[in-house]
Amino acid sequence: xxxxxxxxxxxxxxxxxxxxxxxxxxxxxxxxxxxxxxxxxxxxxxxxxxxxxxxxxxxxxxxxxxxxxxxxxxxxxxxxxxxxxxxxxxxxxxxxxxxxxxxxxxxxxxxxxxxxx
Length: 117
Ligand SMILES: [Zn+2]
Ligand SMILES: [Zn+2]
Known about the structure:
This protein is mainly beta and 117 residues long. Helices cover 6% and strands 43% of the residues. The chain contains one helix and ten strands. It has one helix spanning 40-46; strands at 4-10, 17-26, 29-37, 51-53, 56-59, 74-76, 82-84, 91-93, 100-102, 111-115. The strands form two sheets. Strands 1, 2, 3, 4, 5, 6, 7 and 10 form an eight-stranded mixed β-sheet that branches. β2 (17-26) and β3 form a beta hairpin. Bound molecules: zinc ion (ZN) (2 copies). One zinc ion (ZN) binds at residues 77, 79, 81, 94, 96-97, 99.
């Protein structure tokens, strides 16, 4: 089975949290295959930030999108956390660390994730 990890994403629409499951498809590439609502308390307990993934990420063909707004894409902040990408101004504010910045493509220094258990 492919290596799989979970990253957390916050939706801009209602500030709710969800988990995104990534599967490694090659040395330097990950595909995200699944998104599921998760409670903040559960997420804290699981501690989904012990490892960092880097490389290329892309949605699987049947990725269902954000459970709240349906977006299949997200912004990776410099803090390594994910935010739903619902912005039309070219700017985004990270729901995790509060940083405001320009939207950039790619995953920067990596995405903080935890093992899928
Ligand atoms: Zn969303
Ligand atoms: Zn951030």
